[in-house]
Design brief:
Blueprint (H helix, E strand, L loop, with lengths): L1 H26 L5 E3 L2 E6 L4 E9 L6 E13 L4 E4 L15 E3 L10 E3 L4 E9 L8 E10 L15 E10 L9 E7 L3 E3 L7 E6 L7 E9 L4 E6 L9 E4 L1 E3 L2 E3 L10 E11 L6 E10 L1 H27 L1
Parallel strand pairs: 2-10, 12-20
Antiparallel strand pairs: 1-3, 3-8, 4-5, 4-7, 4-9, 6-8, 9-10, 11-13, 13-16, 14-15, 14-19, 15-17, 17-18, 19-20
């Protein structure tokens, strides 16, 4: 009886520690980091370059990893992208074969182990064929974890992915055609004096290479007060729309005036160039700032005062 009790207790204790270890292992978070997160390249046909990437695992467990190159396309108006996971043997995706790893013991697509707290250096080579068309090519170098051989393959398991985007422009003379169109410059017609007006600038890239708008939005009032908002030079990919933000101390933010009170008529002017500060593109609008809430509050206060006073007069007349 004593042996049965000891055996049973040992089994329960082993089971408890096994479950505790499994829960602890599953609770460990997966984390990846990569540098640099973006590569912008302009290159001539027939030329090649290399770029060194550092992939790190700041997590607590070793990770089995693999890599791939996928094309992507812009989506939405805030810089979102969509990865194309379809087979890359089509004509439009042949440029993916231009990429390879130059590591002595690691090729693109190979499996490798990334230890906890460790780092893997990857040397990416880009070799553009001499007959490559002058155009833009967009791709993502994607690293992702592989299923652990110690996990239950039938159950859900945590996985991690991280990528770095590649913006490639193939140009023979280094001057690809860049062109943009102002789709909308939206300014409110009338605002309350205590509000901060928001200016919406939507641009479309109608050229053949990705571009960055560089310029300012200037707001001038009746009394020559002036507010200057600096446009954030974000990439606009070919055939895509983007809502342009402004910046303050290199932080992106909506294009708004930082003022506690505005009054009168204001002239708004957006001026920018493509990849350089200039006045090649111009959009103008006006708005009026009126103390609407203040006036409305005074009217309501006066109405209440008049009603109370009228009631007092009526009450006195009754007596």
């Amino acid at each position: 009886m004593k042996k049965v009790f000891i055996t049973t207790a040992s089994f329960l204790l082993f089971t408890f520690y096994f479950l505790l270890f499994a829960i602890s292992a599953n609770a460990q978070s997966l984390s990846l980091a990569i540098s640099p997160p973006l590569l912008e390249v302009m290159i001539q046909p027939g030329k090649s370059i290399t770029q060194v990437y550092k992939l790190s695992n700041p997590g607590e467990i070793d990770l089995a990893m693999t890599s791939k190159i996928l094309p992507f396309s812009p989506q939405g108006e805030k810089g979102e992208i969509t990865l194309d996971n379809r087979p890359n043997n089509t004509l439009t995706n042949q440029y993916l074969t231009w990429f390879s790893f130059q590591n002595a013991n690691l090729a693109l697509g190979d499996k490798f182990l990334l230890k906890a707290g460790g780092e893997q250096e990857v040397v990416l080579k880009l070799k553009v064929p001499g007959n490559a068309p002058e155009d833009d090519y967009y791709a993502t170098l994607l690293f992702e974890t592989l299923p652990s051989p110690f996990s239950d393959q039938s159950g859900a398991q945590a996985q991690a992915k991280i990528g770095t985007n590649l913006l490639l422009t193939v140009s023979r003379d280094g001057q690809p055609p860049r062109k943009a169109e102002i789709i909308e410059f939206k300014v409110p017609k009338i605002i309350d004096s205590f509000d901060r007006p928001h200016f919406l600038l939507r641009l479309k890239n109608t050229g053949r290479s990705f571009l960055k708008p560089m310029g300012i939005i200037t707001v001038t009032g009746w009394f020559e007060q002036k507010y200057i908002l600096e446009l954030l030079p974000e990439n606009i990919l070919v055939d895509s729309l983007r809502q342009i933000q402004c910046q303050s101390e290199d932080n992106p933010q909506p294009c708004r005036i930082n003022s506690k009170f505005l009054l009168g008529r204001y002239q708004v002017k957006a001026e920018f160039g493509l990849d350089q500060l200039s006045e090649d593109y111009l959009a103008e609008a006006t708005f009026f700032a009126l103390p609407i809430k203040l006036i409305l509050g005074l009217v309501i206060t006066a109405a209440i005062f008049w009603i109370v006073r009228f009631k007092l007069v009526i009450d006195k007349s009754l007596f």
